[in-house]
Amino acid sequence: MIRKELSEVPEYVPGKSVEEIKRTYGLEKVVKLASNENPYGASPKVFEALKNFRDFHVYPPKDPIELRERIAEYVGFPEKMIVVGAGLDGVLENVFKMFVNKGDVVAIPIPTFPYYEILAKIYGAKIKFLRRKENFETAEFDERAKLTIICSPNNPTGNVENFEFVREVVESVKGIVFIDEAYAEFTEKRLTKLAEYENVIVGRTFSKAFGLANLRIGYAIMNENFAREYMKVCPPFSISTIAILAAIAALDDIEYMNKAVKKIVAERSRLEKALGKYFRVYPSEANFLYVEAENSDEVCYELERRGVIVRNLKNFRGVKNGIRITVGKPEENNFLLKALEEIF
Predict the structure, then answer these.
(1) CA-CA 20 to 30 A from 10: which of 43, 123, 251, 280?
(2) What is the Cα–Cα distance from 186 to 209, expressed in whole angstroms?
(3) Cα within 13 Å of Cα(22), Cβ side
């Protein structure tokens, strides 16, 4: 009875939780540097906006027009080109519903976020894995692809894609190019402008820089015709009123977000230098660092025993002994460095 495509679909494996590590090792203090969350959290304006909310019995609006208008102001594109969804994952799944038929080619550079492959398999697509260069920039594309997914900055490697190369991809492929910019706020080298092309969709999120990961608010910039069709496949009431109010409040305090990003970027630079003592560390334009260890299983285990959770990337296709480390607050990063000093 279950669709046969699901036999090929791996379950998405998230990072371990603080509670799990505390329980497993009997620890009181655990620092989580595994899920690329903003350690400074949401703006105080978010908490202020939600403190008197009482309408839990009322459905949210099907089309949160005020939020879309505010996002449009933020990204510099017309409101008619803005769509929203339950996290960027939800937005991308709606894009799959719109475009991907069974047997269509979906092109994915690897290594990258595993959920792309999961969605492609769920929808019965043929997957073309694309090579990357030594610096992790995408090295090729497939003109036949119905959907090409490009993540920039890329998760888990942290690199940004070359703008002119991605423009070449956009102008050469016969299908849609989805650009995942979940980490766009952490870099100046963005691809957002390419949303001007009819076959480009740029996805963004409030989960990372804005600190609203728990509320699941994603959005995309796409041409107006696509945006109208998107509403047909987007589940009704997929974003709660609480999430809508929080996102609007976050956009009311861009200064807070920018300050948090500035602190994270400064710590990223410090942490990159410090980690070089123990690993091969790759430059990053995101809020995390990608490192290669001799044995990632052993390193992650020893860190967990000492109360530090990082992301072992063994379930990321194309990665061997890679570890992704979220940039935390200075005291969290120091806790990590102290643990590494003990291990090595």
Answers:
(1) 280
(2) 8
(3) 8
Where do the domains of the chain lie, and which CATH numbers do they carry?
Answer: 4-41+255-342 (3.90.1150.10), 52-253 (3.40.640.10)
Residues, the chain: 344
Furthest-apart CA pair in the chain: how many Å?
57
Report the distance separating Cα 280 and Cα 264, nearest Å: 21
How far is Cα 337 from Cα 272, in angstroms, rounded to an integer? 11
Angle at 195 between CA 193 and CA 199, to 5 degrees: 140
CA distance to 93, 104, 113, 271, per residue, from 8 (Å): 17, 16, 17, 38
Q: List, edge to edge, every strand of the sheet that includes 280-282.
A: 280-282, 288-292, 322-326, 311-312
* pLDDT per residue of the chain (344 residues) written in tens, 0 to 9: 888 888 888 888 788 899 999 999 999 999 999 999 999 999 999 999 999 999 999 999 999 999 999 999 999 999 999 999 999 999 999 999 999 999 999 999 999 999 999 999 999 999 999 999 999 999 999 999 999 999 999 999 999 999 999 999 999 999 999 999 999 999 999 999 999 999 999 999 999 999 999 999 999 999 999 999 999 999 999 999 999 999 999 999 999 999 999 999 999 999 999 999 999 999 999 999 999 999 999 999 999 999 999 999 998 999 999 999 999 999 999 999 999 999 99
